[in-house]
Amino acid sequence: MNTKITTRNNSLDWLRVLGILLVFIYHSSRLYNVESWHVKNEIWYPSVELWNGFATSFMMPLMFVISGASLFYATGRSGFGKFMKDKVLRLLIPLLVADLTHISLQVYLDNLTHGQFSGTYFQFLPQYYRLDSIPWRGMHLWYLLYLFVFSIALYPLMRWLKGKGRGFLSGLNRWLSKRGVVYILALPILLLLLLPSEFPLMEFSGGWPYLAYLIYLLWGFLIVSDERLQENIQKLRWVSLSIGLVLVITFVIVISQINDLDTMSPSLILAGVLRTFGGWICVLAIFGLGKQFFTFRTPWLDYANKAVLPFYILHQTVLLVVGYYVLQWGVPDVLEWALVVVISFVIIMACYEYLIRRWNVMRFLFGMKTLPKSKAAPTEQDQEAVRQS
Length: 389
Known about the structure:
By secondary structure, this protein is an all-alpha fold. It has a domain at 298-389. The chain is built from 17 helices and 2 strands. A hairpin with a 2-residue loop joins β1 (204-205) and β2.
């Protein structure tokens, strides 16, 4: 197995930043699609519904594959204790903090707009802080919870693959490095979708069952474990992009023609095959394009990469609050959406810059590494201190 990867994977950092921006845009569009959400525009648009179907085909699989790739670099640096501590600080602490603070705004707006509560936010808080009312999965932050659980569950296997199992991993990578073979890694996901909905972790979120994300996390670990495999993915980038887009767009067309999505039918099976293979191949295309075009590093990337986790934690709460008020302004919907996106982005980044990045207590609460005490202000010096955050 070729393991010459010793420096930071710049393309992975770019994909992480771009992936979070995609999640942000996707959530902003949910104000206008047909599916129920916490805050909704009065009019929904079929074009937005098609966009949502397209985006969810690969969006959260991409995020878990990126996280799995990051686990490859994190596993084996030290023992399980340090690995566990890092995941608790990075994932569970910010999840718990969010549950006990700003997530209450999301629940309040959901209850308010769905007619389940009338009153002010502060009148709602006593109802929220009952133990049975707090959404401990963190609303949109379910990603952090399942990333934690799956990372811990996969740790023994990942440690083995980087240790005594290196021979097995090398043989597997040689096989996957053959042209196009990596595409068949979508097959386990497809078989998984045949399980009954009552099966553990088969509840859907982000467009896929939770159990599928466990596999995507492992696939992320796998595809960056060998340089030859990455080179093969890079060589196939345009082929993968073409095939992936054709499959996903065909899926969107097919699924839009199905009236009953709860009854198994040939059309529904076809849609599942198109979506599963199309989504996975799109993820491979994105990784290949990243390896080709995003190998450089800039100060902007350093800044953005450190902001990713706080941005993700805050983005849905800010979007919902801003959306709730902007939707009442009566402006044209396209302008309305643009205003929600721009205002939300500015607020999130202002919160990060002035309330989180500069203060160690806030950095800790948002899953970032704290700055050394000798550094009075996090200017350019915090670049190295938080490089891995």
